[in-house]
Amino acid sequence: MVSDALHSKGVAGFDETNWKDNYGRILMEAAGNAGVAALGHGNVAAAGIGTASAGIATSAILPSAVAWAVSETKDRDTEIALANIITNTVASAAGAAGGLAAGGSTSIDALTGAAAASAIQQNNMSQQMAVAVEIAEIASKVLGRVVS
Description:
Blueprint: H1 2-8, H2 23-39, H3 44-72, H4 76-103, H5 107-147
Helix pairs in contact: 2-3, 3-4, 3-5, 4-5
């Protein structure tokens, strides 16, 4: 919510559709998950680094995931579901890798990173995926006319 408010006010670093300008949101979410891990006596580094690595990976893959989903079907709900599956899979994998790298060598560190990353991705995309799909649909139509 804070990240969305900052983005709507034009503050740089909170644009989730562009991985190069998403650093503020990624850092804020990573710090939040690290704080929750600290309160729960969890692995702070695994939660924080897992969330950050997933934020970068998800922001980078989002345009391609949405473009692919739009090319596969013309049903908006299916497009949203396909894009969410891809981005959540990427978030979980990147979160697990980040958690494992930060936490050492235990599977619980990987799971901590994956769980934190997946939760953040689901929250962010629940509000944003429909807009991303709509943009991809428009782009597909425009590009289709240009190519034809």
